[in-house]
Amino acid sequence: MKDRTVSRLVRRVLRHKGWLALALLASLFSNLLAIAGPFVIGLGIDHIIEAGAVEFDILAKILLLLACMYLVGGIFGYFLGLLSGLITNRVITDLRREAFEHLMKMPLSYYDGHSHGDIINRLTNDVDTVSDGLLQFLKELISGVVTVAGAIAFMMFLSPLISLIVILITPVCFVISGAISKKTRYFFRQQSVLTGQLNGYSEEVLRNQRTVIAFGGQQSCRQTFDARNAELYTVGQKAQFFSSLVNPSTRLLNYVIYALLGIFGGLACLAGVGLTVGNISSFITYSTQFAQPINNITSVTTQISAAKASARRIFELLDLSPEPADPADAAVLSDPDGRVRFEHVCFSYRKDQPLITDFSLNVEPGTRVAIVGPTGAGKTTLVNLLMRFYEIDSGKILVSGQPASGITRGSLRRSFGMVLQETWLKTGTIRENIAYGKPDATEEEIVAAARQAGAWGFISRLSKGLDAEISESAENLSQGQRQLLTIARAMISLPPMLILDEATSNVDTRTELKIQTAFLKMMEGRTSFVIAHRLSTIREADVILVLDRGNVVEQGRHEKLLQKGGLYARLYRAQFSG
Amino acid sequence: MLKPLFPYLKSYKKQLILGPFFKLIEAVFELCLPMVMAELIDRGVKAGNGDLVVRYGLVILGLAVLGACSAYVCQYYASIASQGFGTRLRSSLFEKMGQFSFAELDRFGTETLVNRLTNDVNQLQQAVAMIIRLVIRAPFLCLGGLVMALIINPLLSLVLFVAVPVLAAALYLIMKKTAPLFGRQQKKLDRLALDVKENLAGSRVIRAFDKQAEQEAEFAEDNAAFYRAAMRIQKISSLLNPATLLIINLAMVAILWFGGVQVNAGSMTQGEVVAYINYATIISSAMIVLSNLVVLFTKAWASAGRVTEILQTRPSVADDPGAIPLPPPSEAPAVRFEQVSFAFSEDGQNVLEGLDFEVGKGQKFGIIGPTGSGKSTLINLLCRFYDVGAGSVSVNGSDVRKVRQTSLLKGVGLVPQKISLLSGTVRSNLALGLSDPKDEKLWKALDIAQCGFVREKEGLETEVRQNGANFSGGQKQRLTIARALAKDPEILIFDDSLSALDSLTCANLLRALKEAFPDLTLFLVSQRVSTVQDCDQILVLDNGRPAGLGRHEELLNSCALYREIYQSQVQS
């Protein structure tokens, strides 16, 4: 597949046409003035021929002009720099935002299956690398275009013949740097892949460092790290070496031109074709100026190749197919009555391993459904499907009589209140977290929710109360306290349907009892799905679903299932005998 | 601050000396070129000698080729030394981070550590390459250019002696303005990284609350803040090039004028003026390179600080010089806490206080208490993840502070509350830290831990994704249990880690455990009475203080808190 990284990046730059035009304009002025400089200096030199023959009045005028030119050129130069920075930063800001928005549209299977460290890397370091490369490239390119064109014009004006030498030799630069950068690109790509892997690995190990310590696994982790590190060295060293060849090579060509100019310019002078020493001086400067942008671009090839490799990784992310958007005619679920119906639902995470096959269930409004079963029986999967975190392979899920696939995901999910086993909280205050599902909640509502969840006790003991900040890893809160906050978060909005996934496993039993009461109140009149390993929690359920290997093997009320003496009965007995 | 970094450069002495040396050769040649050109003009062109013109031209060509070859050699050495330096430094940092105990991990946090290991090392690596390539070359070109200019015409050099300090002052001012802004920009970038991380971790909850749009808006805001910070820097740093160019160019104007005066007086030739201007150009471009170097080094300096901080951090828990291996089980109690108290920081409140108990070999010891009562902290002290503040913890009769850490942890199997699995295979997870992981041993552990599902997959080679994402909660938990069993521990600790298991699995597991390891000393940390009620001893913790110690029946009579917990659970 053809690599379209560059053209995609260019298209993003072209979105800022207005600014680009201004930048080109600034570049035009600043560079033309800069190019005219050596010509004017050459004029000046020609008026300093020898002792006693210096024409000071003309020299003074020339120099005054020169000073003015440089001053104005400098001002435009500043604008050029500013504008390239502006364009780069806008491109980058957009890129990062789009990448993030794309990330938010990815199906959950992507989050579950990819290294978080790697994703974070793409959105931060990679974007940064693109930014560095792009800025350099833009600056050099914009001023390069003008400089090269201007320098050629001036040289042609001075002497078409000698200009040819410069113009003919310069393409060699491109050929050489092209050959080198081809080699470089390969190593850079390798390097960027290996760096990503190494970073991902370090992130994972360091995040799990406590476990690694507990098992004395530092040595083996270090061996893996060192092996990958050594691999990175081999590739990194080559990438760096080859990319650093470009700069001296172009410098060499510069000096070759310099020598040829001396020889041919000198000879031309001698031949009396009207070339002056001042002209040669200007020529030399022009040949440098002419090569400068090329030289500059090649000297930042390292950055540019790195930027390209990074851009590719970002585009890779942008190219992943997101969760299909809600169809245009998707209904907004308003006022759901709490009816939920599974019809012949099939689902598996991996094509070759069927999990849920032909699952049907009818849940009337206000029913309390308890889902039990041995670990790995597919209880969490059921929740994933209900919330459309994963899409079913075949069959139908009906909510309030409407097929879930025809309802907007947002409205579907909003109509479920959910307390998960994982206790994720947002960075921010406790207040913000409790009011997460209801940002306009009043103080009273927040306090009431906290009370109902049994979280008010510890919140009121915090010095800042509701306004206490929850740190990223929330080391300041225990798992149990975090769990209480997630319960309060669900308590505040109370949608018509509830999903409770082992919600109380992180809470001590005294607190749990309080929550239990609140839960019961919360579940009143609401359709609720409760996953819990503790049978005591679900004894009061209207329907108990006993799952095993993705299928409902038993279904009914507590007493009935006990009499049946099946899997449920065995699970129940284990609870009280062990 | 840089001193701790020097050892990593040591093995690259040759490259560090020869690299700049070859670069110097290139610079010397480069400096010669304008001189030769001046000769070409004055002796060749002006004197009408075509032969000399060609000869000087060829000399220039030859110098250019030799210069380029020297540059290639230098680049080669630079790539070896800088990448080698980076690789060694990374390896050392990773090793050092592996020696950190919990206190250091708490203090730094994962994010920072990863950043230092990756970005900061990269910065330093680049700086090393730049040192080799440019640190000699740029100042040398600057000084050399000045010297050559002096040789050509001392009087005219006064212009340069005025211009160079002005230039330096301008550069300094711009740097000084931007340096603090870079720090602020970095903070905004960290913030963005944190945003992404948080959204990755909270993907389910965010979707459940249909909050994607708001999260996007929040990110866009932080992103915009980053944009503003970047533009603030841009506004100042864009001054850098135009300002330096302006100063240089104005110096040129002055050179031309005063050069004219000198030529008029007969103390200088036209060719010398051309050469002089050439040197002035070399000096100025070298100055610009120097200014860019300064930017790079300010960044590298900050990175060096962060890296050396890690290298110089002394792990708060480390082996004594005379540390002994964990003594074999004897008459002494398997675990003994003597008047132990502990605080996370020296001036902080004690989170544990007055712990005093003995656990005999093969006993089953329960620890129960409300959330936040210090149960996990107690376990962390037993494993010596932290050192006690006062009192002592001993295992098999030896104070844990006198025992080699690796040896202690070999004897203690921990199933932590928070599930953590590393990506790799079931084997690589189970064999973590084992010297000779035999298959049968691993299978035995898996069987006891009720990990039958591993057999249904690809056995020991079953892939484990990051965080064990391809397993259910209960499966992950059982894998962590198998991991703790695989090392044949003398003491096994379940730190509230049976909760993700359903009761049937849990009961089977404990039964299998009893059969396979009859002598195992077992610690059961839980919030549930049913988990600990048949323990030989139960410690009731309340707010870090012992509230009761004894058997189930005794505690029901004597310990109010225990009774309360029990009643709350029986009722449900």
Q: In CATH terms, what is the fold-level topology of the domain at 5-319 in chain A?
A: ABC transporter transmembrane region fold
Question: How many beta strands in the DSSP annotation of chain A?
Answer: 12
Largest beta sheet of chain B: what is the strand line-up? 6-9-10-3-11-12
- N→C terminal distance of chain A: 60 Å
Features:
heterodimer; A: 578 residues; alpha/beta; four-stranded antiparallel β-sheet; 20 helices; B: 572 residues; Rossmann fold; 21 helices; 12 strands; 64% helix
Could you give the topology of this structure?
The complex is a heterodimer of chains A (578) and B (572).
Chain A: H1 5-14, H2 17-46, H3 56-105, H4 108-113, H5 116-158, H6 160-207, H7 209-214, H8 218-271, H9 277-299, H10 301-319, E1 340-347, E2 356-363, E3 368-372, H11 379-386, E4 394-399, E5 402-403, H12 409-414, E6 416-419, E7 428-429, H13 430-434, H14 443-452, H15 456-461, E8 469-470, H16 479-493, E9 497-501, H17 509-523, E10 527-531, H18 535-538, E11 543-548, E12 551-556, H19 558-564, H20 567-577
Parallel strand pairs in A: 3-10, 3-11, 6-9, 9-10
Antiparallel strand pairs in A: 1-2, 1-4, 4-5, 7-8, 11-12
Helix pairs in contact in A: 2-3, 2-5, 2-9, 3-5, 3-10, 5-6, 5-9, 5-10, 6-8, 6-9, 6-10, 8-9, 14-16
Chain B: H1 7-10, H2 13-45, H3 50-99, H4 102-108, H5 110-135, H6 137-152, H7 157-201, H8 203-208, H9 212-237, H10 240-265, H11 270-312, E1 335-343, E2 350-359, E3 364-368, H12 375-382, E4 390-395, E5 398-399, H13 405-411, E6 412-415, E7 424-425, H14 426-430, H15 439-448, H16 452-456, E8 463-464, H17 473-486, E9 491-495, H18 503-516, E10 521-526, H19 529-532, E11 537-542, E12 545-550, H20 552-558, H21 560-571
Parallel strand pairs in B: 3-10, 3-11, 6-9, 9-10
Antiparallel strand pairs in B: 1-2, 1-4, 4-5, 7-8, 11-12
Helix pairs in contact in B: 2-3, 2-5, 2-6, 2-11, 3-5, 5-11, 6-11, 7-9, 7-10, 7-11, 10-11, 15-17, 20-21
